Amino acid sequence: MIKEIQSAPVFPESEVRGIPLDQIEPDKNQLRKEFKPDELEALAASIKENGLIQPILVTSGKDGKYQIVDGERRWRACTMLVEQTTAVSEPSEEVRTIRAIYVSGDNQLVGILGNIARNSYNPMEMADALALVKRMLGAEAKDADVAKHIGRSRTIVVEYNSLTKLPKKIQDKARKNSCVPFNKLKSLAASKGTEEEKIAAYEVLHKKYSADKTDGNPKEKGSKQAQNRETRSVVAMRKKLDTMKMALDSVQFDEKVDDKEKENFLKSLQEIINCSSSDLI
Fold this sequence. Notes:
Number of helices: 11
Structural class: alpha/beta
Number of strands: 5
Strand order of the largest sheet: 1-5-3-4-2
Strand content: 5-15%
Radius of gyration: 32 Å
Oligomer: single chain
């Protein structure tokens, strides 16, 4: 017996409804694959504090469920919030639902344009998205047509398209982990060399930028260390100057030195100390 596929109920596209999270499923063809746990946790905390500001977009899916058109990250964060709440108490109906708007038409394109507008894609996902938009626009579509459609420059489209020339192994890894910056990927795609050489070069970059994310930016870290050393030097110098000022007040002169000489000497020494102090401000 063939199982009958039941569609989720349609509701007016201008209406925002609360839909239970377990009645929603992501789109398996969604180009975005990287969802960083720390970012999801931060979003979940924000939703807990302020509520979901922007509803997700859904359409009819299979087995009576809705399929996400745009907003999988928000749906994942709300699902995480339910899991966190369940650990301590029974989640309320409000927590177990998500605000959604029903859409129809070219759903995949709507989702892609939404992610592009929010800069949600990592570099490799962006390259995939632009390539798909170009295919959707038809066989005659040019890079300039894609640029006009997404509201970006033709140069940006061409640069992202260049990433599709990278070896497949690099593309697959870059989709799942976006630690290597776009400009480095772009340079690697344009570089000469064999596939093996490019893969080896990518591994070096991946190791470097993975370490940067773990340990912090080496340049920034070195700069902070230098600033700390400078701060300690300034503090030490100020202590010395303060000591000199105190010593100046207790200076004793030989009886043979007249008052005018004493005054000139003390005045000169005071000016030296004052100048040194102003240099540290």
